[in-house]
Specification:
Blueprint (H helix, E strand, L loop, with lengths): L5 H15 L11 H11 L5 H9 L2 H4 L4 H8 L1 H10 L7 H9 L3 H15 L8 H21 L6
Helix pairs in contact: 1-2, 1-3, 2-3, 2-8, 3-6, 3-8, 5-6, 6-8, 8-9
Amino acid sequence: MGPTTISDLAADARSFACAAHQGQIDKLGHAYGAHIIHVGESVAALGPEFEAVGYLHDVVEDCDVSLREIERRLGKRVRDGVDAMTRRAGEEYHSDYLPRLMADEIAVRVKYADSRHNYGKIHLLADAVERARRRAKYQAIFDALETRCPDLSS
């Protein structure tokens, strides 16, 4: 039925996400689990639901996991946060996805942590054009999220 105590929520989400992403690697060849753990831990101080969404933020897009399964295991609030983080097929990033994401307080904070972590790895990309493209992409994301939640930039 899901976690029985509030502290179980984040632990269950972490183990669920790590199992779902098992064997996946990022664009730099690193284990993907390191990224989701970093994001979850980055928002842990905000509460177990934030931490859970941090661990699960890519699980619907990248794994064979449904929002229904997330809700069954971890509750509606975590499901809603993951849903807001999940880009849908055909959704334009800046005009569709980001505005939808920004309607969810948990998703805003998790997306910021996710983007900061990804931004911090840009310098490792060999292609200068790709580095510049990603810097511009993430700067636009930061600008949008910081407009929604000005305290993020402090």
